[in-house]
User: Fold these one by one.
Assistant:
Number 1:
Amino acid sequence: MQCELCGKDIRGKSHRVIIEGTELNVCDECARYGHEVKQIPKVTAKISGITFRTRSRRRPDIFDQMGDELLPDYGGVIRRARESHGMSHEELALKIREKASLLKKIERGDLRPEDDVRKKLERVLGITLTEKIE
Ligand SMILES: [Zn+2]
C-alpha cells in the first residue's frame, strides 16, 4: 500500500486521515498533515429477531384467538361414537340432558353444538370434537 499523499510505501500501519476535505490513506509522516478519521464500526443492529419472530406461524395472530375449531365432520363423529356405545338418540340425549331432536340436528350437521353441549358429548362419548388451529 502506498501513501496517497507522498507516494511512499507505507510500512506498518497506515493512517486514514482527512486532508483538505479528502479522505486519504497516508504514511506516518503525512498523517500529521490531516485529521485522523475514527473508524466507526458499521451498525448491524439485529432487528431481524423482532421482525421475523412470527415467521414460523402459518397464520396471523388473529387466528390464535379462535383457539380450537369444531371438526368439519362433527356430526358423523358424534353419530359413530353414539352407535359404537350402542346408544339411541334418546338415550344419549338423556345422558347429556338435551333434547333428542337437538342431537339429531347436530348429528346431521344442521346445527353446531354450543360449547357446553359439545363438552358434554365429548365427555359422555369419549371423543374430541375440536381440532387445534395452527
Ligand atoms: Zn506520506
Note: The chain has seven helices and five strands.
Number 2:
Amino acid sequence: MNISCPNCKSQSEPYFISKDYNQHVTNETFHHYRCPECELIFISPIPEDLGVYYPDTYHFVPDSVDYLEKASGHERYKIDIVQQFTKIGSLLEIGPSYGCFTYLAKQAGFHVDAIEMNARCCEFLHDVVGVHAINSDDPVRALRKAGPYDVIALWHVIEHLPNAWATLEAMCSRVKPGGYVVLAAPNPDAFQFRVMGRYWPHVDAPRHVMLIPMKLLVDKMSQLGMKAELVTTRDEGSLGWNTFGWEFFFGNLNANRHIKRVLHRIGRLVARMLAPIERREGKGSAYTMVFKKVA
Ligand SMILES: [Zn+2]
C-alpha cells in the first residue's frame, strides 16, 4: 500500500520493514517508505507514544562536572564549527541530553538555553551545567516562548521528531537575522546505508522517524530564508559516525557482551578499510550543516 509523503505528498512505496535492532526495546515491526520525488525516507505509521521506545539507559546522566569535562573533549569539534561562524551571543541547543555541547558553548562564552525531553537531564543541565533548561518533548511549543537566538543547534535530533518540518520552521523564526542554525543528522545517501539497508544502525527504528536527504534539507531551509554556509559529510563528527555505523552493524549481530566487544573491533577494522570510500564528500553516514538567516 502506498502512503503520501509527509513532505511533498507524493505517493510513496514501501521501502523496507525493520525492527529495533539497536536497543531491542520492542519486538514490533516498523514500515519504512521512500518518496520517489523528494527521496525522504519515513516510518508510517509513526507510533503514537514514541517516549516508550527510549529506555531509561538511553539518557545517561553523569554524576559530576569532572565527567562532563572529560566527555566533552570528544565534542570540541562542535563548538569549533560554531565559532568558525560566530564567536559570541545567545545559543539554544535542542536535545542536548546531559549537555556536553551545552557545557562547551557555555565555556566558550555563549549565553546558553536548552530544550530537552528527559527530566533527569534537565536537572543536570540546570544544577551542574548551569544553563536554563526547558523540559519538553515538543520543541515547537517550547520555541514559542524562547529566544530569539544568535545560534540554534541540533546535533542528531531532527530525525527523531515526528513534527520535523514544523520544528525547522519554528526554529528559523526564532533565529535573529544574521544568526545561524547548526544541524547534524544521518545521511540517507550514505555508502553504508546502501550496503546495510534496514540493518544500518542509523535507521534506529522507531526512534528515527525519518531520514532526510541533504538536498531536501538545504532546499527546505532555503525556503525558510536560511542560506547554506557549510554542508559536509567530512567534518570530524560525521567521520566518527562512519566508524560507529560499522561497529554497531557488527555488534548488533550478537547479544553476548564479550562477543559484541570483538564484533565492535571487527567493525572498526572494516571502517578503516572502507575509509577511502566513506570519506568522499556526500558518501559519509552523517552530515553537518550550518545555515545563516538572510531573510
Ligand atoms: Zn516527498
Note: The first helix runs from residue 65 to 71.
Number 3:
Amino acid sequence: MDIQQKTALVTGASRGVGMRVARALADRGCHLILHSRNTAGTDALAAQLKKQGARVHQVAAELADPDALESLIAEVKDVCGGKLDILYNNAAVMTPYLSRFTVPASDYAVSFQVNAIAPAKLCDAFIPGMLERGWGRVVNVTSGIADQPELMAYSCSKAALDRYVRDMVPTLKGTNVLMNLLDPGWLRTDLGGPDAPNDPDSVLPGALVPVLLDQEAGSGKLYRAQDYAQKP
Ligand SMILES: NC(=O)c1ccc[n+]([C@@H]2O[C@H](COP(=O)([O-])OP(=O)(O)OC[C@H]3O[C@@H](n4cnc5c(N)ncnc54)[C@H](OP(=O)(O)O)[C@@H]3O)[C@@H](O)[C@H]2O)c1
C-alpha cells in the first residue's frame, strides 16, 4: 500500500504510541498533522520529521473541552483543505485507579469526552469527505483492558468507541474508506506505567497494519499490535 503524499492527523502525537505512529507515517511519505494539548508537546517531533523532509503541521486541543474539539476540527480542515486521508485517533486519558464501586461520575464524563466523543466527532467530521473522494483509513485506538472495575471509566469509554466503529461497518461496506480498531498492547508509556511488559517501540509495525490494508480487508476489525511485534 502506497500512502505517499497522504495527509494524516495523529491525535496524541507528543509521546507514546502517537509519536511512534506519526514517525512511521512520515517515513512512508505522509504529510503529518500532529496533535497534542500544547504545540510545544510536538515541537521536537515536528523538527525531527521536517529535517527528514516531511511536511508537518502542529495543532493543539484539550479534547475534554467540546469547544476546543470544534476548533481543532475547523483548524485541521483548514490545514488540509478539507482533504484528510488518514485519521489516527490515538489520544486518550486514563483516570486514576480507584477502589471498585467508587469511580466518580466526573471520571466517566472526562473519559467519555476524550476517549469516545472526541474520536467519534473527528470521524464524523472527516469520514464524509473520505467517502466523497473514495479513499480513507481511520484507526481508533482501543484497549484490551478487561475485568478491572478500578478503571471502569476508561474501559467503558473504550467500549463506546468500539461500538462506534462496529455500528459504522454497514455504512462503509463496499467503499475504500476503512475504519478499524488497534489495541497496542500494554506498553511502558506514561499511560501504561512502568510495570507494563512491553516496550513502547513494540507497537510497530503492528500499529500501521490498519492503515496499510487493501479495500477487501474491510472495516470493524480489531488489530493487536503485539501480534506483529518481534519477541526477544
Ligand atoms: N500504554 C498502554 O499500555 C495502552 C494499552 C492499551 C491501549 N492504549 C491506548 O493507546 C493510546 C495511546 O496511549 P499511550 O500509552 O501512548 O499514552 P501516553 O503516552 O500517555 O500519551 C497520551 C497522548 O494523548 C494526549 N492526551 C492525553 N490526554 C489528552 C486530552 N485530555 N486532550 C488531548 N490530548 C490528550 C497526550 O497529549 P499531551 O502530551 O498534550 O498530554 C499524549 O500525546 C491511547 O488511546 C490508550 O488508551 C495504551
Note: The chain has a mean pLDDT of 98.
Number 4:
Amino acid sequence: MKAVQFTGYGEVSKSIKVSEIEKPIINKNEVLIETYAAGVNPLDIKVIEGDLKSVSTFKLPATLGYDISGVIIEKGEHVTDFNIGDEIFSKVKKQGTFTEFVAINKNLIGLKPKNISFEEAASLPLVGLTAIQALKRGKLKSSESILIHAGSGGVGSFAIQYAKSIGAYLYTTTSTENVKWVKELGADRVIDYKTVDYRAIVKDIDMVLDTLGNEFTEDAFKVIKNKGSVITLVGPVDAETANRMKLNKIIQLFLAFKRRKITKQIKLKSAFYSLLFMRDNAKQLHEIKELVATGKIKINIDKVFPLNETLNALLYVKKGHTKGKVVLKIK
Ligand SMILES: NC(=O)c1ccc[n+]([C@@H]2O[C@H](COP(=O)([O-])OP(=O)(O)OC[C@H]3O[C@@H](n4cnc5c(N)ncnc54)[C@H](OP(=O)(O)O)[C@@H]3O)[C@@H](O)[C@H]2O)c1
C-alpha cells in the first residue's frame, strides 16, 4: 500500500517520499481502517523538522499524519463496540495516517458524524481535542471572557465555536480578509491584527488561549485579570508539566530559565499558566461528534490535496495562513 513517509529530520521538501509498505496486521484490540481522508497539521511539519525529537522518537522512515477518517474493514476479536462497515474518525497515538490502511486501537476511534464528509471528519480530531482540552484546563465558564489567538486557524476556528457553545464572551485575532468569517463563527469581538494592537482592546479577561507563542505568551498576562488563566499550545513548559515529565535536574533548570519572564508574570497576576499537550480521548471524540451533529461546530476546509501531493499540502500549512483546515483525500 502507498504511504507518505519522512526519511530524515530537516527541511520538509527534502525529507518526505511516497513509499510502498506492508498493509498492517491488526491485533485483538484493533480495527483495520481503510483511509478515506487524513488531516494535515502543523505538528506534521514540526515532526519532520525535528522540533519534537526530545519527546518523541521515530524509527525512520516513518509514515506521517495523526488525523484520519475512514471505514472499518476488519476488527479484532476484543472489539465489541464497533462493526465492519462503520465510518469512523480518530487521532492516532503514534503518527501514521497518510496511508491507505491503518490499524488503530479500539479505544482511540469514534463514530464519524453522519452529517459531514470524510474530508471534514478527518479535519476534526486533533484540533477539536486540543480546543476542548484547552478550554477545560482553563475552566472557562459561561459568565467569563476569553481571547483566542489565530481564530481562523484549525485550533482557533474550533475553539471559537466551542467557547460560544459554553456561552463565554470571546475576543479573537485574525487578518483583515478573515474578519467577517471569524465573526460568523461566533466571536463577539474580532481584532484585525494587521491594523490593530489587541492589547489596546482586550483588558481584564478571564482566559487567553495562546496558539502563537513567543511575545504572545508573555503579553497574555497583560490582558488577563488577577487570577486569570493563560493556556498555551506553544509557549514554555510550565513547572507542573516539567515535574510530571520527570525530567532530570539540568533540563528542569534549563526550562525554568526559559520561562523566567513568564514566571515573573504568573506571580504578578497570581495567574494559572499551563502548556497543554493534547491527548487522545475517545469520550471527547464523541463530544465532537455531538457538537457537529447539532450544528454547534461547523467546519471550513481550506484545501484538499491528493495523497501524492502531500508535500504541497505540508508546504501550504507551513506558510501559517490556513483558513480552517487542510486535508488529504486518500480514497
Ligand atoms: N500543544 C498541543 O497539543 C498542540 C495541539 C494543536 C496545535 N498546536 C500548535 O498550535 C499552533 C496552532 O495550530 P493550528 O492548527 O491552529 O495552526 P494553523 O491552522 O496553521 O493556524 C493558522 C492560522 O494562524 C493565523 N495567524 C498567523 N499569524 C497570526 C497572528 N500574528 N495573529 C493572529 N492570527 C495569526 C492565520 O490567520 P491569517 O491567515 O489571518 O494570518 C491562520 O488562519 C501550531 O503551532 C500547532 O503546532 C499545539
Note: The mean pLDDT is 96.
